[in-house]
Design goal:
alpha+beta, 39% helix, Calcium-transporting ATPase, cytoplasmic transduction domain A, seven-stranded antiparallel β-sheet, 238 residues
């Protein structure tokens, strides 16, 4: 369901697919879906512990060999050689450390963007709940200054403009609409959609949640950052 092209469907069809309406879903159904889909959070598989990251860079056959060479050079009193080898070790360790540290820090920055609470319609009542409890099928009520906490299909729009710079890099606000778009429409041009991590800069809307957590475009970015494979340096390859 998460991979469905929601921007190509009429809003009535999207509401029907999620068993929702302009009054929202029931609390009972919300509880059931929360167990099924899990919390609306960006999962962190990496932990930002600088010392651990630094020490982990020494877990390499290449580094072990250089350390042995450094010790041997000191024993035979080749101090210049030992100093050069030690500099090589620290250079390689530093490169690996900064690559991994930067990636993990990016994950933390992404998580900070999501706000703790959001307004949602449930059983015809407007409620303010933790953003962690948002589930597919929820109807969010958003207005100027609000942060979007999940991927959504717009249902009702009133002069809505959204800052999507976090996804597209474009700082100019995007004017939103309820209309449908062709399947091949680029993500940045899907004006009937809202994406987690973006923010409302003008107007109001009612938006149906279609994806949460790691299933959002925002979550996919976080997932890719955590899956980064750190390449060996030229010295390590040789």
């Amino acid at each position: 369901m998460f991979d469905k092209q929601w921007h190509t469907l009429k809003k009535e069809g999207v509401l029907r697919d999620f068993g929702s309406s302009l009054t929202g879903i029931s609390e009972k159904e919300a509880s059931k879906r929360l167990k099924e889909y899990g919390d609306n959070v960006i999962q962190e598989t990496l932990k930002l512990h600088p010392l651990k990251i630094f020490l982990s860079q020494f877990k390499s056959i290449f580094i072990y060999i250089l350390l042995v060479a450094t010790i041997f050079s000191l024993i035979i009193k080749h101090y210049i050689d030992s100093s050069i080898i030690f500099i090589i070790i620290m250079f390689n360790v530093s490169v690996g450390f900064f690559q991994q540290y930067k990636a993990e820090k990016s994950i933390l920055e992404l998580k900070k963007i999501l706000i703790p609470t959001v307004r949602v319609m449930r059983e015809g009542r407007l409620r303010k709940i933790s953003s962690k409890e948002i589930i597919p099928g929820d109807l969010l009520i958003l207005s100027e200054g609000d942060r979007v906490v999940a991927d959504c299909r717009l249902i009702v729009v009133e002069n809505l403009e959204v800052n999507e710079a976090i996804l597209t890099g474009e700082s100019v606000p995007v004017v939103k609409t309820e209309e449908i778009f062709p399947e091949n429409t680029l993500l940045a041009e899907r004006a009937n959609m809202l994406y987690a991590g973006t923010s409302i800069v003008a107007g109001n809307c009612k938006a149906l949640v279609v994806a949460t957590g790691m299933k959002t475009e925002f979550g996919r970015i976080a997932g890719m950052l955590q899956d980064i494979k750190f390449e060996e340096t030229l010295m390590q390859k040789k």
